[in-house]
Predict the 3D structure of the following.
Amino acid sequence: MKKIHQTLIAVLFVLSLASCSVSGPLFVTDSPGEKVGKSSYRMIFGFILDGGDASIRSAAENGGITKISTVDQKVESSLFITTYSTVVTGE
């Protein structure tokens, strides 16, 4: 019973380390911004799943933005899948 308990704790500890998320601003200007544009793509084992584009240009186009105010990038990683997202605000 004690060995099962120790194994369960070890497995839970490893699983808690298997997922993380990193987010941060890349670019900020003085321009006001009300519109929001997003772009993203997913990868599994280093291969792009949905052929997406997480560039600043595609995020701005998706939101109809011509003057960029801020750019944020987020990377979410789980055990097998990693998602890269870019969020652009502007007018």
